[in-house]
Amino acid sequence: MCGIVGYVGESKAQDFLVSGLKRLEYRGYDSAGIVTVAPEGEATLIRAKGKITDLERKLVENKKEDTIGIGHTRWATHGEPSEANAHPHQAGPLYMVHNGIIENCKELKKALKGHEFKSDTDSEVLVALINSFYKDGKYPLVNAVVQALKLVQGTYGIAVVSVKNPDEIVVARSGSPLVIGVGHDETLIASDASALVGHTKQAIYLNDGEVAVVKKNSIEIKTLNAEPVSAKVEEIETNLSAIQKGGYDHFLLKEIMEQPDSLTETLRGRVDAENGIVSLGGPGLSEKELRSIQHLIIVGCGTAYHAGMLAAYYIEQFTPEITIETVIASEYRYRQAYIPKNSVAIIVSQSGETADTLACLREIKKQGVKTIGIVNVIGSTIAREVDGGTYVHAGPEISVASTKAFTSQVIAMVMFGITIAQAKGVRTSILKPYVEEIAKLPGEIKQVLASSADDVKKIAGKYKKYDHAIYLGRDTAYPTAMEGALKLKEVSYTDANAYAFGELKHGPLALVDDRFFETAFLPKGMLYEKAISNVQEVLARGGHVIAVTNNQKFDLKVDDVIRINTSLELFVPILMNLISQLFAYYVTVAKGYNVDQPRNLAKSVTVE
Ligand code: F6R
Fold it and tell me: What's the rounded Cα separation, in Å, for the pair 230 and 257?
């Protein structure tokens, strides 16, 4: 979603602003802009609809040596993507960039009679409001920002510069992340630490309700109520290679292929396969608390939700007397759900910033329920607000479509489930097969990726002509089907839906015709024969079936078979999901679409 960058120091601000915005491109955007201010107070504002390259074209004629500035990539909420709606927005001597949504902008706008609005955005209302308190430089900028923000309902991460004080940037956040990078004779600002990588390793993560005056050699933070905040400087762990393509054509393929390593990081120091034991430091629950858990609520959106669904199937297999409910955050936050005693909520999020998931976390905490985060981005809001948690350590995910995070999320949750089971006294002989397979999984993933990528690519070429797809599975292969359909639809724009095999006869079977193909996930196991019967029902109606199976003797006459050769039995659906990821990638490349930044989507969804 929208990205913010800012710079104050001794180098050319434009250079950092443009390179920082490029780093944030993966978040999804439709326009971009930067403003820099010269020491004598002249501002250079450049904005463009489209990509950063469009902005760069305009920059050629507007190169400046200015050493302070702010920049933004916009993902339209109020007002269409256009140059006028792109940030920074101006009011008098002020320029501002904003992430989030000002919910009461209509009311605020009514009161701002003197300002002539040039855009349809809620953000311009905010900068005009700030200027109404700033009075063209009569009062300190930070005071004006605080006064304005006290009137605002909604979410914001903002950065403001004034041509009257060209040595400071005022930043503030509520519900939309902001990181301040501490450099030598320079201070940098970003909505996402990846923009700071390579510039500094020292960062301060602003908290909700805080405002900071940022200068080249100083950072002063206080709350909106004027209480001083002593900033905690944290280390940025990401390195440059983690956010580069590393020889791959696209981030999506890189991230699919790096799953053996990303999962290894998830497991590091946590799995003792020999003794069948898992040890997680993060959840911070005592043995007694773990023993008393009777109910788990797993909360997430999109891929994180599917990861939760799949993990729930596993956890209930080996944990006695536990009820697990996996819920979609955007729904659950408004439900009047009763959460029974002895519940723990697992909050799953790659970015740690998803607005609906964060809102759920806050609602659940209000009920006094313990919350455990399964989060990838270190220092993110969800990671900071949960009671305890397990970082999945999958490394930065740049491609909008989530892949490696899914695999790590499922296994991190299963490990948490095993931790509960261990505390409840479940016999090691029951848990050991899971722990052993978890330990083997990175190696099996490597093998499956290496052996199937070419076959999947060939098959994908055949299916790119279809506009409709149905993904089918049952038991643990059902969430796998859901995740596969999501991957295909979001990157290749194929209308793909998933159903549990058992549901076919209750409606979806009516869809089967020449315009559709069906991807059937068929792991060997208890429900294999039943799933095979379901596939036969599809074939009997002229369906075009791709079967994904680990049954080497599979001999049904289907259109295509992708065989997975593995010694694993329990986590085969995770291996099958790799096939879905590769399939979605290759179909999209064959169709010629932007695989890393699908239209209309954003990487971290920080608005409702
Ligand atoms: C799909 C995808 C989204 C995210 C969802 C939640 O590929 O990326 O469905 O999974 O927006 O995001 P996080 O995990 O950041 O909370």
Answer: 42
Angle of helix 404-423 relative to helix 302-318, nearest 10 degrees, comes to 30
Alpha-carbon distance of 238 to 232, in angstroms, equals 18
Q: How many domains is the chain partitioned into structurally?
A: 3
Tokens of 198: 């390579």
CA of 582 to the centre of ligand 1 (A): 18
105 belongs to the catalytic site: no
**Predicted local confidence at residue 435, as pLDDT:** 98
In sequence order, what DSSP letters do the residues of 514-555 get, joined into one string? TTEEEEEEE-SSTTHHHHHHHHHHHHHTT--EEEEES-TT--
Cα dihedral 409→578→581→579 (10° resolution): -150
Residue nearest to atom 16 of ligand 1 (CA): 349
Mean pLDDT, the chain, as a whole number? 95
| Identity of residue 156 | Y
- Ligand 1 binding pocket includes 395 (Cβ within 6 Å): no
Q: Are residues 98 and 174 in the same domain?
A: yes
CATH of the domain at 313: 3.40.50.10490
User: Do 465 and 421 fall into the same domain?
Assistant: no
3-state secondary structure 304-354: HHHHHHHHHHHHHHHCCCCEEEEEEHHHHCCCCCCCCCCEEEEEEECCCCC
Q: Taking 90 as the threshold, does the pLDDT of residue 27 lie above it? A: no
> Is 340 among the domain residues?
yes
Contact assessment for residue 439 and residue 267, using Cβ atoms and an 8 Å cutoff: yes
Residues 6+ apart with CB under 8 A from 449: 256, 257, 259, 260, 578, 582
Residues 369 and 495 reside in one and the same domain: no
| Residue 277 contacts residue 435 (beta carbons within 8 Å) | yes
CB 186: neighbour CB atoms within 10 A?
Answer: 20
Residue range(s) defining the domain that contains residue 132: 3-243
Sign of CA dihedral 336, 340, 342, 345: negative
- Examine the domain organization and report whether 66 and 151 are in the same domain: yes
Residue 264 lies in a domain: no
Mean pLDDT of 424-442: 97
Residue 261 lies in a domain: no
pTM for the complete prediction?
Answer: 0.87
Do residues 422 and 494 share a domain?
no
Concatenate the DSSP letters of all residues of 245-263 into one string.
-TT-S-HHHHHHHTHHHHH
Question: Ligand 1 atom 5: the closest Cα is on which residue?
Answer: 302
Q: Is 360 a catalytic residue?
A: no
List the residue whose alpha carbon is closest to atom 6 of ligand 1: 301
Q: Per residue in 257-310, pLDDT tens?
A: 999 999 999 999 999 999 999 999 878 899 999 999 999 999 999 999 999 999
265 within a domain of the structure (yes/no) = no
Query: Which parts of 38-148 are beta strand (E)?
Result: 43-49, 68-74, 89-91, 94-99
Q: Determine contact, residues 302/604, Cβ cutoff 8 Å.
A: no
Distance between CA atoms of residues 331 and 327, nearest Å: 8
Options 64, 370, 487, 603, the catalytic residue: 603
Answer yes or no: do 469 and 522 share one domain: yes
CA of 41 to the centre of ligand 1 (A): 42
Among the options 2, 105, 301, 360, which is catalytic? Answer: 2
Residue pLDDT, tens place only, 474-503 = 999 999 999 999 999 999 999 999 999 999
Q: Are residues 398 and 496 in the same domain?
A: no
Give me the DSSP letters along 492-508.
H--EEEEEEGGGGGGTG
